[in-house]
Write a structure and sequence with these properties.
The chain is of the alpha+beta class. Among the domains are: 35 residues; 82 residues, Immunoglobulin-like (Sandwich), CATH 2.60.40; 33 residues, no CATH class; 50 residues, no CATH class. Helix content is 27%, strand content 16%. It has a four-stranded antiparallel sheet, with no helix packed on it. Strands 4-3-7-8 form a four-stranded antiparallel sheet, with no helix packed on it. A two-stranded antiparallel ribbon has the order 9-10. The longest helix is centred in the first third of the chain and has 30 residues. The chain is extended. 5% of the residues are buried.
C-alpha cells in the first residue's frame, strides 16, 4: 500500500470514528435504559395525545400516540358519558412513542358537540372534545381542485401580477430603480398620533383654551404629562403644570429679545433683567452754537489799513 493510500484510509477513519462512537452510545442508551433504572418503584407516567379524529358513516375514528415514558393500555372508551365498544389496531399496550387507531361505532349527530374519554388500565383518563361534528372530507378530485385553486390565488396570481411591472422597471433605468427599490427602510422610531393641535393659552378664568382668540401663553412650571391611570377625557394632561405669565417685559416675548432660562426664579437680590447685560447707550452729540472764525491770514488782511 502506497503512502497516498494510507493517508486516504487514515482520513476516512478519522471521519467515521465519531459516527461509530455516537451510534454505539445511542445503542447503549436504548438497550440498557439507564434513566428508567434510576426511577425505582414509582407510579407509571401515562400520557396519550390525540393525533387525528375523523367522522364518517361508520362512527368515530381516533388515532392516538403514547408520548409518555411508560406503556399505556386502553381499557375503556366513553362518548358523551356513555361507555362504548371499540376496536384497537394494533391491539395491546402502547409503548413509548407507540401509536394506535381506535374505531368507535357511535351514531354522532351533525352540528352537535361530542366528548371523548379514554380510560387506561390504571384508571388514568384522557379527554378530547369535538366542538362541531361534521363529516371529515375524503381525498378526491373535488378536494384536490379546491386546494389547487387556493394555491393559484395565493402563489401564482400575485407573482404574475407583480411581473406585469417588469417592462416599466426595465424602462426606468438604474436611477429609477434606485429610487423605487433602494433607500427605503423602516426603523423602530415611529409615532402615530391623532387629534387637534393644542396650544396652551390664557383666557378668562381658565388656563387652557383650544382655539378661539389667542391671548398669551402661560409659563410651564411642571410636568404636563399625567400617568396613564389618571388620564380622563376631561383631564388628559396636568393643567397645574401651567401658570400665569409674569408681567415682566422679558417674559413670553418673541423676537430677538432675551428671555430668562426656563425654570429660573429670580430672588430678592437679582431680577430677571440683571442676568442680561444691555449694551450701553451713547449720548447724543450736541452741535456748537459758536460763530465760525475766519482763518488767520484773512483776519490779518482785514485788520490792515
Amino acid at each position: 500500500m502506497s503512502l497516498a493510500d494510507r493517508s486516504a484510509v487514515v482520513r476516512w477513519g478519522m471521519a467515521l470514528l465519531p459516527l461509530v462512537a455516537l451510534a454505539a452510545l445511542l445503542l447503549v442508551i436504548v438497550r440498557l435504559d439507564p434513566a428508567g433504572k434510576l426511577r425505582g418503584d414509582v407510579p407509571p407516567v401515562e400520557k396519550l395525545a390525540f393525533e387525528r379524529v375523523t367522522l364518517d358513516d361508520g362512527g368515530i375514528t381516533v388515532r392516538v400516540l403514547n408520548d409518555g415514558p411508560d406503556a399505556v393500555s386502553i381499557a375503556q372508551v366513553m362518548v358523551d358519558d356513555a361507555y362504548w365498544s371499540f376496536t384497537q389496531e394494533p391491539a395491546g399496550k402502547l409503548g413509548h412513542l407507540g401509536a394506535a387507531t381506535l374505531r368507535i361505532p357511535y351514531p354522532w349527530v351533525e352540528g352537535e358537540t361530542h366528548a371523548l374519554r379514554l380510560i387506561s388500565r390504571n384508571g388514568i383518563t384522557f379527554d378530547h372534545t369535538i366542538e362541531v361534528a361534521v363529516e371529515t372530507p375524503r381525498p378526491g378530485g373535488r378536494l384536490f381542485g379546491i386546494f389547487a385553486l387556493i394555491g393559484l390565488y395565493v402563489g401564482v396570481l400575485p407573482v404574475a401580477i407583480g411581473l406585469l411591472w417588469y417592462p416599466l422597471l426595465k424602462r426606468l433605468g438604474r436611477r429609477g430603480l434606485d429610487f423605487v427599490l433602494g433607500g427605503w427602510q423602516l426603523t423602530g422610531i415611529h409615532v402615530v398620533q391623532s387629534g387637534l393641535a393644542l396650544t396652551a393659552t390664557l383666557g378668562g378664568s381658565t388656563v387652557l383654551n383650544l382655539g378661539g382668540e389667542r391671548r398669551a401663553r402661560p409659563n410651564l412650571v411642571g410636568n404636563p404629562e399625567l400617568p396613564e391611570d389618571q388620564r380622563t377625557v376631561a383631564r388628559w394632561f396636568n393643567t397645574d403644570a401651567f401658570a400665569a405669565f409674569s408681567p415682566s417685559p422679558q417674559a413670553n416675548r418673541g423676537g430677538s429679545r432675551p428671555m430668562a432660562p426656563s425654570g429660573d426664579t429670580p430672588d430678592s437680590k437679582a431680577s430677571p433683567r440683571s442676568s442680561f447685560a444691555a449694551p450701553p447707550r451713547r449720548a447724543p452729540r450736541r452741535r456748537s452754537r459758536r460763530p465760525c472764525r475766519a482763518p488767520a491770514p484773512a483776519r490779518r488782511r482785514a485788520a490792515a489799513p
